[in-house]
Design goal:
Layout lengths: L8 H4 L10 E3 L2 E3 L3 E6 L6 E7 L2 H18 L4 H17 L1 H12 L3 H22 L6 E3 L6 E8 L2 E5 L7 H13 L2 E5 L6 H16 L7 E3 L5 H9 L3 E7 L2 H11 L5 E5 L4 E5 L5 H11 L11 E7 H15 L20 H16 L3 E4 L9 H6 L6 E4 L6 H4 L6 E7 L2 H9 L3 E2 L1 E5 L3 H10 L4 E4 L14 E2 L2 E2 L12 E8 L3
Parallel strand pairs: 7-8, 7-10, 8-9, 10-11, 12-13, 12-18, 13-16, 15-16, 18-19
Antiparallel strand pairs: 1-2, 3-4, 5-6, 6-22, 11-21, 14-15, 17-20
Helix pairs in contact: 2-8, 3-5, 3-6, 3-7, 4-5, 4-7, 5-6, 10-11
The chain binds nicotinamide-adenine-dinucleotide (NAD) and 4-oxobutanoic acid.
Pfam family, one: Aldedh
GO molecular function: succinate-semialdehyde dehydrogenase (NAD+) activity
Enzyme class: oxidoreductase
Length: 502
């Protein structure tokens, strides 16, 4: 199928102002002391060179966000609601360009990218409406003549750090509640995929201007310098850090942020079990794997990492999944016939290979994939970060893939016998982000849902993410909830006011 794969981010856009390589500090787009390249993972071409800032720039950005907070926190909830709806509208009206940028810097297919842009906009729309539902309480007092009232106030300046796998949605899932609550923000965009953050800020600035709000309510500070980011979670003016990324980095930030008692939200790594019981609808279970295991080529925190299949249904499930995987096509995300794009970098491809090799060396069978895909041009094979989605059977709990998040397109199948075996294997991990299972028995559904140690459970579905559903893990997968009616409170503090003498 004929398609064109852009070679520069600027050329790819129909609305050119969305292309920005600078940071946004103190209400203006500014260049940094250095730049870093942004690579297209399908070709390894450099598609932009983005400003890289130092710790002093983070310090300035934090001061500016603090100054803007004084005005922004006094806006009414209804004004914030209208402003956020306008921002969501602008995202939707530029969805095609945003999806193009997303595919170019992340690699996922244009169809997936368009889905992510709408998913990202849905958080802004959702929190526009949550802004005006920020209710308090009236609590009877035990002291005669007194009554307690609670109000919710913005926590203050928030630091936002997000990963490359969802460069639009992971930013909007944090921006929406922060602005709805009346906070101002300093964003450190993901270094592999910073262009979507800049484009979002172009649209945000348009909404800000139309509503007469301070430009400084948002600061965007890209950097390749890890030391510089430390300023964001050590500076006492920052009252909250919202981080999405790996568990080791999340733990390190939480430790340091504790010195100034910042509020934290940590959306970290996972090792999701995906259980198929004997009484499952096999077609639905395979559909679920396609939606969940292979989303963003397996680079999603809620991706199934371990497929546990009960003995009686095992062979039928494996055969059905294999047939569906044979229809996959790997290549450029701009090719409409492609189902799966490249991985983010070479290290990601190596990790998938490492998990396959380890499993095979311990007795697992590689039934499909795991190699460089056929049908790509020599240049794509040479430069792009491609791997065929892989299917392993005979996987056991001693293998690396049982403990370690692959974060790639590898479906490892473990066979089990009883419901209790499945629950034990599923929970045998320090992670607790998502878990999935398929069964048609109501008692199993209730029993297993309650016993799985995960913040989110999908029953008879592989799709659990949505603006209205509380998103977040337990155990070492993090703390806090994003989206949903609970997400706003993460950016607020509750103040109790006792009025006496009444
Ligand atoms: N739970 C969730 O909602 C969720 C969502 C997406 C990704 N993830 C997890 O993220 C991981 C993959 O993303 P990644 O490889 O980009 O993670 P990462 O932790 O390396 O990076 C995440 C972000 O933190 C920044 N960062 C890296 N080191 C830092 C440091 N020392 N100090 C401050 N910031 C630092 C990065 O530049 C990036 O912006 C996976 O484990 C995945 O499960 C979790
Ligand atoms: O990668 C993690 C976030 C993806 C999602 O919101 O479903």
């Amino acid at each position: 199928m004929a398609f064109s794969h852009p070679t520069s981010a600027y050329d790819a856009l129909s609305h050119k102002p969305l292309f920005r390589e600078q940071g946004f500090i103190g209400g203006a787009w500014i260049s940094g002391p250095e730049t870093f390249p942004v690579h297209d993972p399908a070709t390894n071409n450099v598609v932009a060179n983005v400003a890289s800032f130092d710790a002093a720039a983070f310090g300035r950005a934090i001061e500016c966000a603090q100054a803007a907070l004084q005005q922004y926190k006094e806006t009414s909830e209804h004004q914030r609601c209208k402003f956020l709806h306008r921002f969501a509208g602008l995202i939707r009206s530029h969805a095609s360009d945003l999806a193009t940028l997303l595919t170019l810097e992340n690699g996922k297919t244009l169809t997936e990218a368009a889905g992510e842009v709408e998913y990202g906009a849905s958080f802004i729309s959702w929190f526009a409406e949550e802004a005006i539902r920020s209710y308090g309480d009236i609590i009877p007092s035990q002291h005669a003549g007194s009554t307690n009232f609670t109000i919710r106030q913005p926590v203050g300046v928030c630091g936002i750090i997000a990963p490359w796998n969802f460069p639009v949605a992971m930013i909007t899932r944090k921006l929406g509640p922060a602005f709805a609550a009346g906070c101002t923000v300093v964003i450190k965009p993901p270094s592999e995929t910073p262009l979507c953050t800049m484009a979002l800020n172009v649209l945000l600035q348009q909404a800000i201007e139309e509503f007469g709000l301070p430009r400084d309510i948002v600061q965007v500070v890209p950097t390749r310098n890890r030391e510089a980011i430390t300023e964001l979670y050590t500076n006492p003016t920052v009252k909250k850090i919202s981080f999405t990324g790996s568990t080791p980095v999340g733990k390190a930030i939480t430790r340091t942020a504790a010195d100034t008692m910042k509020k934290v939200s940590m959306e970290l790594g996972g090792n999701a079990p995906y259980i198929i019981f004997n009484d499952a609808d096999v077609k639905a279970a395979v559909d679920g794997v396609l939606a969940c295991k292979f989303r963003c080529s397996g680079q999603t925190c809620v991706c199934a990492n371990r497929l546990l299949v009960q003995a009686e249904i095992h062979d039928q499930f494996v055969q059905s999944l294999l047939e569906r995987m044979k229809t996959f096509k790997v290549g450029s995300g701009f090719d409409p016939s492609v189902t799966h794009g490249p991985l983010v970098n070479k290290a990601a491809v190596s990790k998938v290979r490492e998990h396959i090799d380890d499993a095979v060396s311990r007795g697992a069978k590689l039934l499909f994939g795991g190699h460089a895909p056929t049908g790509l041009s020599p240049r794509e094979l040479d430069c792009g970060f491609f791997i065929e989605p892989a299917l392993l059977t005979g996987v056991t709990t001693e293998m690396k893939v049982a403990r370690d998040e692959t974060f790639g397109p590898l479906a490892p199948i473990f066979k089990f016998d009883t419901v209790e075996d499945a629950i034990r294997i599923a929970n045998d991990t320090e992670f607790g982000l998502a878990a999935y299972f398929f069964s048609s028995d109501m008692r199993t559904i209730w029993h297993v849902s309650r016993r799985l140690e995960a913040g989110m459970v999908g029953v008879n579905t592989g799709k659990i993410s949505a603006a209205e559903a509380p998103f977040g893990g337990i155990k070492e997968s993090g703390v806090g909830k994003e989206g949903s009616k609970y997400g706003l409170a993460e950016y607020q503090v509750i103040k109790n006011i006792t009025i006496g003498g009444m």
